[in-house]
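Sequence in, structure out. Go.
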Amino acid sequence: MPSQAKSYLEMKPISNVLIVGGGTAGWLTAAFLARTLGTASATSANRVRITLVESQEIGIIGVGEGTFPSIRGTLSAIGIDEARFVRECNATFKQGIKFVDWVRPQGAPGIDHYFHPFSMPSQRQGGPELLPYWLQGAAGAGVPFAEAATMQKHVADALRGPKRMDDGDFLGPMNYAYHFDAARFATMLGEHARSLGVEHILATVERVELDDDGAIASVITNERGALTADLYIDCTGFRSALIGDALGAPFHKVDDALFVDRALAVQVHYPQPDSPIPSYTISTAKEAGWIWDIGLQQRRGVGYVYSSRHTDDSRAEQVLRDYVGITTGPTKEDISPRMLKLNVGYREVHWIKNCVAVGLSGGFLEPLEASGIGLIETAAYLVSFLFPHNGDTEPVARIFNDLMRQRYERVVDFIKMHYCLTQRSDSQFWIDNADTRSIPASLRDKLAMWRCRPPHRLDFITDLEMYPPSSWQYVLYGMEFQTAINANPVSYPRFEEARKEFAMIAQVAQRAVTDLPSHRALVEHLCKRHHLAGSKLESA
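Output:
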């Protein structure tokens, strides 16, 4: 006991945090930490100094410009208002994802798309859970679950926004996330983090030095020499200069389940300044991967994510060019795709001694379902609220590593489910994805159980999941998975109630389409509101 007490007393409290790397990961973590720890308002006696060092020479990757609804809580928590975010980040609203040609090839008989909405299935207080009754046909023949159980697809298909003009920040009748310009987002986060007391250093990290215990002693920069801290946060992206190169955290590849390892990205302008903006990501399956199509205010972000084992780069570029040509029409716009090589997997440990990884340095699981920024949010949240003020990082590291590893594992399962349930056999990519040997055992078990019953909340552990049970349900049945439910009237006695609820949802959906503004009008309203607010501040 005495030796333990002495060890505790000898620990140095953490008063200096150095974040290495900017971008979304670095600046979001900086802002979250500064806000949570009260950096700007703390006295010198209890102030935790937060410094971010980044190089001017390293650009932002920006593969994914989409988010999950958790981003609204994150922006609110760090103190950014919605109108500012929309205007400064060229942002638009995202009500879900439209998956085109994932079930069967283009032109094959059958429905050519399904929708993953962000709103939960409708359930009045005391009312029946709708999914079992949808499986029994209470919504009518051929009505997809996502369309039957929520009005969001009707709203999105009508090019309506998810909220009314006078709804408060981050509030609205539809659940939603955003699309945004990644570079602008990082710039805005940087300005905001500095206003919260984060110090900013422009310098290029040349190398990392370790102490005798194997912890980080300092990072050496070209311009500022050695920078030291009590806690180092690695936001250096795929380079993983601290947690990977310096500390040797093993990298767990998941390319045996998720095959895509390349991306070609382009920017495409709208034909007219007032062109309608879809309020969802369009994900179109192709022969060796899929194409994302994201509508921002003045342009679209389009990219082809593909497997280099199943196609070559020149063919991939042609697939992307063909898609842009078909969806844009005749254009003189020069399309020069940017190539990105993706290292798909994650670190087996994200926190070692006095270093923790956030963002791409900790892992990357392709841009499908916007897991990248969601995992940054999770890591920033955990670092902030588990913060080891007294310097005892070991117990925090164990919890952090367990939570992050298990969250990555569950995201892998969720993403793989999109691929492995396909009915496509028109290319080796889809054949290999449906091969049972490529499906993680944990996902195989889930699918086996769901053959005789639908997914239930008890199949999921809330603190480890990025995606709620409803997201799994929308994708599972959007991919036309078959559940042979036992329609026992004792187990499911509320068929007529459910049938009326489905009819009511379809009816209310028409009113929602009428009541909600167009997506572009909503975005322009918020931009104007922020502009006017800024003008009033300047004149005051």
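Check: The longest strand covers residues 262-269. DSSP finds 17 helices and 21 strands in the chain.
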